[in-house]
Model the fold of this input.
Amino acid sequence: MIVSIPQCVESDGIGAALMPVVCAWCRAPLGAKVCSPAMAGKVSHGMCEACSERLMRGMRPIAGDGRTAR
Ligand SMILES: [Zn+2]
Done:
């Protein structure tokens, strides 16, 4: 009996699978991208908008209400 963890949704026909993408900083879900079946079950890392903005501003934590200082 084969037990598989359905972490990766396989699409039929084209031999590709979907790999979930999460933000490497805050782990917010960023969607999914197509990967080869060999990569099935892995997670890809990206950067969400909030984290990229925070890095651009010099690693300062986001205040919470999204105020912009102009
Ligand atoms: Zn993030």
User: Anything to note?
Assistant: The mean pLDDT is 79.
